[in-house]
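#onboarding

Welcome to the new folks! Below is a worked example of what a typical request in this channel looks like: someone posts a single protein sequence, and someone else replies with the predicted structure as tokens. Don't worry about understanding the tokens yet, we'll cover that in week two.

Example request:
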Amino acid sequence: MTLRFNLKKIAAYPFRLLNILSVAAACTGAFSALAATAVAEDAAAPIPNPPDISKSLPELPGEDVSAPGHTDLKGKSLSLNYDSMQQKWRASIDEYKSSNPMFMFDYGLRLTDQLAAGGRVTHQREYSEVLVNGVYAPRPSLRFTVSGGQLRPNSDYVSESANNGYNALLQNSYLLDVKKYWSKDSLVSDVGISTYVVEANGKSTGKTASAVSSGMDMGDTESMYLDTPALGKKASLVFNLGLHPTADSRVEWRRERGRLNYYVGDEIRDREYLMSSRFKYSHNIDNCTQLQGRYRSSDNYDRMNLGIERNNWNFSISRTRDDGVADTGFQIGYKIPLSGSLSSVSNCKQKPESAPSFSPILDTSTSRPDLFPRDALVK
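Example response:
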């Protein structure tokens, strides 16, 4: 094998390499000049701020962000809630593990700063109920509430006699409530007046009329009339008064007066006059001792209770009269905290019960009035 080399071409390679390096150096200088010019222009012109996209991002839960909607699972209750300044709603199932759960849905809407409306729907095996509330608060210390409700007992769970006399039962309730609060330094802390009407209605099966038309003996007809259940209508007026005689004492007084009539058709079968009173007194003797007294009375029932608490100890005496039978009892108790601490000053520096205050207007619009009965007025 013979190798041949062209000496002229080999000698020309170094010169070509120098030409390439010079061209590259020139290009590098040009690019450096352009970059310096661009940097100078950028330094002279202000840098625009990037667009703010934080408002378009969804809120994430954190310490300072409270989501208005949430679920809640506590014990035997499951609920889905939404709560904001303008509206709130809650869907819940109580005793969801049992064979008789209670389904409930609340909704409240703030119409203005002083006016709100809401309601509640409840369904259980024994009954279904619909409630509607309107709340007006012209001042923070004054509130008017109007409520209406309809209770529909399930026919399978109403007394057998009621089923024999009526195809369906509906109980309508109406309430007007006015409350006024004063400051804690006033002698009169709160005054409330409530009036309500409850009326049970039912569609009669007409058995008595059909028995008369068929020629049934009048004695049997009268017996059937007496066996027909009577539907009740209740009208009542309630007055509440709260006092602060001293800085360490509080007095509560409640008086209710009304009437309850039971009807079969348009005829009154039974009439009852209702009158009841409640009295409660609490007084702090010193930082660790509190005296409490309660009295409750109605037509055939009276109960008095007087007790004293000091630290974890308590002693009370009570007397009860029920249908003419009197009973007296004594009670001595000692509180043991679940934490296991037996501190002897757990009740020290306690204050007497303060005057009540209004709940938020939206909460009131979805609440069930305590004066509405949960059972049908059937006798």
